[in-house]
Amino acid sequence: MEQRYATAPDQVPGMTTEDLRGRYLVPELFVDDEIRTVYTHHDRVVLGGISPVSAPLTLPGYPEIRSEQFFEHREAGIVNVGGTGTITVDGTEHRLEHGACLYVGRGAVDVVLASEEPTAEAGPARFYLFSAPAHTAYPTTLVPPGQGTVRELGDPLTSNRRTLNQYIHENGVRSCQVVMGVTTLYPGSMWNTMPAHTHDRRTECYLYFDLPAEARVIHILGEPTETRHLVIGNREAVISPSWSVHSGVGTASYSFVWAMAGENQAFDDMDGFSVSTMR
Predict the structure, then answer these.
(1) Which candidate among 91, 202, 217, 238 keeps its CA 20 to 30 Å from the CA of 6?
(2) What are the record keywords, sorted (predicted)?
(3) pLDDT-derived band of residue 273, with 50, 70 and 90 as boundaries?
(4) Residue 44 is assigned to a structural domain of this protein
């Protein structure tokens, strides 16, 4: 488990491109037949990429989180960004198609992830995990792709028409503190969140997916008056501290998993900044 320590906004102006990428970008999460995890000290979030290609993979405990089982004192949302697969939680199998989300609550012991027979188009399953500490237990719950609470946002005139699927949230699948969903842009739309915002009470992470191999997303981060950017490829994640804006524009349409943990679960608890005030 790789560790990333928390950063402050006054560190950003002096960072090089490599410094920024080393602090906030999480590349190469998905490696065949491996489980890769990153622990960020921003709200104690763990990000994971699980790629069961030739055989199922069992999620272990880690000394960094001081637990014998991963879910001993944690919860997680898991979204499949690859081909169809299954997640078996304490003997109960859940089938996840591309874009589906499984919430796994505190106290789960045996969690096994597997791919169904991959197709040439979809390939094997690729499971993206977002986890935070939990102080109470809620039941493991599956949400099929495109379900949950659906919100249509944006406008084609501003190139940000998008469908937002809220999966784990205060009025949907219950959790202790994880909030999670998937946003998909319409063809011809490239911007995700603009005007940008912060929420100084929650860390948010994005995983960009369904992006063509040669396409990239320019992800904006930093304080609104001191922004920087990262160039991000398919199935790469970015850690956005509570003080940072998080917005992006792609060279092609794409989807992204957004997930948060922190002080509250109110999706609309955010502080917006008009484009004209950003620097």
Answers:
(1) 217
(2) Isomerase, Metal-binding, Zinc
(3) confident
(4) yes
